[in-house]
Amino acid sequence: MRKYFLLLSFFYFSMSLMASNILIPMDAESQKNHLKAYGITYWVLSKQQKVHWLLNYRGGSFLLPDGDAIRKECQIRGVSFEILSTAQSESILAGISSPSKNQDAVILEKAPKIAVYSPKGNHPWDDAVTMVLTYAEIPYVTIYDEEVLSDKLALYDWLHLHHEDFTGQYGKFYGSYKAAPWYIESKENSEILASKLGYSKVSEEKRDVALKIRNYVIGGGFMFAMCSATDSFDIALAAEGVDICEPMFDGDASEPNYQSKIDYKKTFAFTDFTLERNPTVYEFSTIDMTRTRQLSKESDYFSLMDFSAKWDPVPTMLCQNHTSLVKGFMGQTTAFNRKQLKSTVLVLGENKINSEARYIHGIKGKGFFTFYGGHDPEDYQHRVGDPKTELELHPTSPGYRLILNNVLFPAARKKKKKT
């Protein structure tokens, strides 16, 4: 009887040591492919399994259910993982829950449906988001003006805005590229599409697209934008009903004194900005600091803000990384003038020396938006015609991790606010 009891005790002890979870570490030392780790997490969510996102624990690690299929998938994709027993998992979660630690465990419940707003002819490597989604093996659907104007946005949980110009000024490329075949073709295609959709001007069509996207966010959608899609979106909202385009863009003159007619109350993030009136200048307004910043490539970094994981889980999620210092990178819209941010906007990443915000977040209605300055986190000064970035060479990129934080953000279970 005693022998039987000892065997039974040993059996239960052995079972307690058996793996019950897979930990995907996200610190710098343990993870060899941070970007594909997000893809694994998304893949598990797509199998209707829940994931714990361990905020501020080893760089924002993921705790997954154990299973042979998940282990195999990690091995295939080259993602580092650790096998944990029930006791080890419970110990980690207990430690994270301690009031003395700036950590928290957020439950991710479902794989968000992702849409990328981008012209159909663009290649995935034209945009950092489509590039990293493809590399991380996270599925997405490409949509454009026709889908937006026909109310297809409601089908998606998360929307990324490609490097678009919502003001109808064709990216302000006129000064340098008006004779380039690609510019002429792009302008012509935009005019054909606007006409097909019943508009006489591209600027009017883009305005209505921006308004539809605004309503999507207000209704509870998650919107992420980079580079010129950030400020041009807000400018289009503020200039609703005002002609700010010169003749080379829409065939007639802009309204006299249009600056005084800009309505800052309609924007998401920016206020009190001055529009760039010269059509040959590659800039939209004073929101962007590309032309005024005094930083060399070697000294261009921005720091991520430190938030309370238990009290401010949303900004904490968006800032998860294996480093608090991220390499800067340029774009048509590189960085945001802090003096022209609304007081309701939260700065997630900044360069204090230059008084610029690089990464910002806010709430609009029932939804959320995140704006990220710059074009490509691993290509400092991407120019027209430059080769694409090979993410195989940058699998641990901190700048690209910020994009993927936003992708998983809609998967989080909503917590009751602490009061």
UniProtKB/TrEMBL annotation:
* Keyword vocabulary terms for this entry: Signal
Record's keyword annotation contains Signal: yes
Q: Which residues form the signal peptide?
A: 1-19
This protein is called Asparagine synthetase B
